[in-house]
Amino acid sequence: MSKLLVINADDFAMTKPISSGIADLCRRQVVTSVSIVATTPALESSLDLIRDLDIDTGIHLTLNAGRPLFMYKNYPEFVDRDGDFWKTPMHNPWPYLTASRSMQSAINDEFKMQIELLQYHGIKLTHLDSHFHIHLFPALAPIIKDLMREYHIPYMRRPLGRSFFIDLQQPLYGFITCSSYLCFRHEQINSLSLYGFSEAGRLSEEYLKKILNGMDIPVAELIVHPGLESSDNKGYYAVIPTHLKKEFDALTSLATQKYLSKFDIKSVRRQEIFNCLWK
Question: Which end of the chain is more exposed for a tag (fewer CB within 10 A), N or C?
Fold first, then answer.
């Protein structure tokens, strides 16, 4: 039986060029799932690109891209003087590790507004993840547990199984992996084994071949960050996002399609997994 791979593109709606590249990959049936940023001006025009596509659509929660929907300037831990989110949690990591009840309440309201904005636009949420994987940090995990239940979101991204010891070799990803395990180990949450977690920005054609060739489990998720080049993109990342076009080219290459076929891997949506496994 074919191995099943959900190929999920992060940062959809970050900018229109990024969304255009991802939508192209969805139409080619390379990408089967997108994670949507709700805090940028490109949201509405980006959603128009995927209205009629048969793909998974999830929330890409963020405190590090675009402008807040709730928190505004009175939260300098997360928001700069211009009213924009700081572009990386490393600007001030402390609130992601421990936060007061009032701060957690504000984060909860911010995340609720991001989720409900997508729902307002008719998006049915199939999964939850986040920019920089902040949903797995200790101060935010209790909020995420409640949101998953309240909004009946069936899947949440977390590093499982095959990536645990690999990620321990990289301190930041090792910390996120350990935090995820400790915070969610008693929760009954659907998650898929994960590829591309610590390889963000490095998914060249050769790296994709290595990942696909090494896939030794029946079902998994692969995180990708493709997009088209544009000066618009620079304003939403802490570093120049040169990886977007590289990942787009790697995913559209004939070699990658041959690897999927050669290694007997079928790209699917999450809801297809059980149907495929029980045929």
Answer: C
